[in-house]
Amino acid sequence: MDRWNIVSTLNYLSFEKELEIILAKTKKYNSTKGKEQLSNMIKVADLTRKGFMYSDISTVMSPRTVLHWAENNEILNDIGYTFRLTFLNKCDDVEKKIIAEYYQRCFGEELPESSVNVRM
Length: 120
Fold this sequence. Notes:
By secondary structure, the chain is mostly helical. The protein is 56% helix and 0% strand. The protein contains five helices and no strands. The longest helix has 22 residues, at 32-53. The protein is globular, with a radius of gyration of 16 Å. The N and C termini lie far apart (51 Å).
């Protein structure tokens, strides 16, 4: 580190900037309901980023992943299913319950991977 005169930190975009960028690329969400849904998607991503920082999970949602999730949802029109296809299937099986909880906190619905659906 002492070879360099400058050390830079690159953080994630602000909520507003991320929303603005994804809205510009996905026209379907340019309504009150669409913006609310997109806001919840970004909140899920933010929870994964915080979970990663606290070592709760090892996979993080980038703004590009949120954009892909939004694009996939434009096609399939099922927010939970497209979340699973776009992000959750990439995650470690042990962490899926935690990430499903993040989704539930933001959208108020359970995913099949949720700990509520675990059978003993």
